[in-house]
Amino acid sequence: RRVWFFLGGGILALLYALTYHTPLFRLCYELVPGVQHFRSQGMIAFLYAFCACVMGAGGVDHLLDSAAGAQQESRDRILKILKIIGGILLAGGVAGILLTRFSLDAWIGLIYSDITPQKRQVLEAAYPGIRSGAAICLAMALAGVALAWARLQRKIPTASLFWGLGLIVLVDTW
């Protein structure tokens, strides 16, 4: 139940953080008292990050419980989920890196159709940085999936999982 609560809260916060470019913002603007006086709607992104952190911590807790226990079916289910997540990350990440322009054009068409020509030009100048950032994000995510996989297969101890995740966070924040 907690997973659904934080997943829903994270999705709502993300949609609201996209401000004027989603129907949810207009609905909140009209129905929720005080929203019209709030000047920086993007600040709600902290709520999205909080929900992601709570779900990530719950995932690590479940991973450790499944890896430590003798519940083979639970480990098999998590390994299957990790395969799916790894495949989606790999396919989406490679596609995002190779098709940066197409991905951003799709984003503009779906979410930010009222972009000004000046902002569009700035975005186009940022394509190389976006591409390299996507590659770094893909590498970090795949490293996390690989660590979880290795722990579930009992190839690494729990301490190595924590050191590895800590190293990923350290490198990512550098």
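(the above was protein one; protein two follows)
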Amino acid sequence: KWAFQTIYERSGSAGTFTVLLASMGAGAILGAMLMPRIRQMLSGERTVLTGVAAQSIASLTVAFAPHISVAVLGMMLSGVALLATANTLGVAAQMALPNWVRARGMSIYQMSIMGSTAIGAAIWGKLASLATVQISMAVAAISGLMKDFWVTATIGNHLPVYFLKKKCLSLTVL
């Protein structure tokens, strides 16, 4: 089940689930419309860091939303963050890969994203079954924020997106 299960269970309505999913989709559409402006304002690295932070805030908002209207705003933010982050990383990966291996490299990129999503769902789902959905979402959100702070403190502006854009990775082994 989706992470906003708790609001769905409180309302007991399939309509609530639909509204929350539609809100995330609307946020993704809004994110697509805002991407040119986001790219003007933020580097690729900052877009990814900001996207992770926004997703963490959105998760906390949805997990502890006292009312569906607050959860809708959180889901919209989640859609914007997801679109901006996925788009930035996807473009950087495509730009870094040489033509002869681009399709294979992108398939590996997509597989790693989908695999990581599945592993994360299993981990946070297990935590939710041991504690509560809210605690699981809070721990996930806080770990995302901690990762942002750690990356910023240790690597600064030289995130993998930077290296991909500068083609500093040796991808010839693919």
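Reviewer note on protein two: Helices lie at 5-11, 14-41, 44-63, 68-96, 102-130, 133-154, 160-165.
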